[in-house]
Amino acid sequence: MWSVLAGVLAVASLGAACTPSVTTVSGTHAPVTVCSGALIFADDFNSFDLEKWQHENTLAGGGNWEFQYYSNNRSNSFTHSGRLFIRPSLTSDQFGEPFLSSGTLNVEGGAPADRCTNPRWWGCERTGSPSNILNPIKSARIRTVNSFSFRYGRVEVRAKMPAGDWLWPAIWLMPAYNTYGTWPASGEIDLVESRGNRAMTHNGLHIGTQEAGSTLHYGPYPELNGWERAHWLRRNTAGYNSNFHRYQLEWTPNYLRFSIDDVELGRATPGNGGFWEYGGFNANPRIENPWRYGSKMAPFDEKFYLIINLAVGGTNGFFPDNVSNPTPKPWWNGSPSAATDFWNGRWGWLPTWNLNSNDGQDASLQVDYVRIWAL
Ligand SMILES: *[C@@H]1O[C@H](CO)[C@@H](O)[C@H](O)[C@H]1NC(C)=O
Ligand SMILES: *[C@@H]1O[C@H](CO)[C@@H](O)[C@H](O)[C@H]1NC(C)=O
Fold first, then answer.
1. How does pLDDT run across 218-269, given as a tens digit for each residue?
2. Is the model's pTM score more than 0.85?
3. Torsion, Cα of 72, 315, 187, 162 (10° steps)
4. CATH number assigned to the domain comprising residue 367
């Protein structure tokens, strides 16, 4: 289907109709010629195209000690009725509960599609102990890292957020080549993130299913990240889990603009000092600016690829310790036994996931389509 479309685009581009675009692309599913305004990547999820979407296979926990194990398994990621579903399940369903606190899980496989995709943070092999159990949740994270990356364009993803305590869905973009160095020096674009708790408040605000956010991460090294100046939230009292919404990014050589259902959420428009000044990093003259020879959009002037995942928990503070929730948050973010504490608190969160009704759809991140256009 795509190759036919790509062929049509390529043929069309030979005619006079193709206005060249500032957008650039790469990857196995990138069009040969990029015409202004053209659809350059799309998936309606009428089938699960693993040529487009590579699964992560890792225990790494996203660098935040998140509680999930990502693998390529149709129990956790599948397409059905024209939608992509990422559905969480319990690791103990597959391996038995004693395995969590005593088993060794090695996720490295021999086939090309079974290789461990992230060895950091004990990502390829872990041994469980009673105080530090193996990742108790199975889930999925898929990415276009080989099939498609692009610089500048318009993105629209129609999706429905999951509901269930401590679920953390994300649709985001990461740099294809780390041109300015490793995270966060080459940037991160978070199109949408939310929290699955139906009735969680923090400082009086509902920060669960009624909140969705978009964020940019950028900075010279992990401890110096200017995300707080590029972070926007929107509230919806019906909950982002109750309907599909269109999460949108417009990314140009002048700004990054996030919208939900065509209503702008926020935008970052750096001045001539670029994101170095935008993030306030110029206040310290001793730090070298890795973007000094890039454009004012650097690090957001290089190619990024798309990621869709459903994470759970973690200790980085995305779920603050002081939240108010119908059942208490079962782990502290400073706990060395966070995964064990989370698992021991499953009497509180597991019933909220409704895994046994309607094929676990409540707790699933659902995506209707992904579309990316050239500028
Ligand atoms: C896929 O996940 C299911 C549910 O956890 C499990 O029973 C099955 O063994 C898994 N398949 C593989 C090949 O790991
Ligand atoms: C917030 O959580 C911390 C644990 O991280 C706890 O020590 C502190 O007492 C809490 N503060 C409030 C105001 O509840």
1. 999 999 999 999 999 999 999 999 999 999 999 999 999 999 999 999 999 9
2. yes
3. 50
4. 2.60.120.200
CB of 138 closer than 6 angstroms to any ligand 1 atom: yes
- Token match 């990054």: residue? 256
- Give domain status of residue 25, yes or no: no
Amino acid identity for residue 246 in this structure: R
In a domain, 26, yes or no: no
Two tokens at 118?
A: 């992230």
CA of 313 to the centre of ligand 2 (A): 18
Distance 138 CA to ligand 1 centre (A): 9
Q: For residue 324, how far is its CA from the centre of ligand 1 (angstroms)?
A: 35
Q: Ligand 2 centroid to 327 CA: how many Å?
A: 16
Residue whose CA lies nearest to ligand 1 atom number 10? 73
Which residues span the domain enclosing 236? Answer: 41-373
Pocket of ligand 2 (CB under 6 A): 321-322, 332
Number of domains in the chain: 1
What's 89's DSSP letter? E
Give the per-residue pLDDT at 15.
54
Task: Kindly give the number of the ligand 2 atom that is closest to the alpha carbon of 332.
Answer: 5
Question: What is the average pLDDT across 324-352?
Answer: 98
User: Taking the mean position of all CA atoms in its chain, how far away is CA 297?
Assistant: 21
pLDDT at 6 exceeding the cut of 90: no
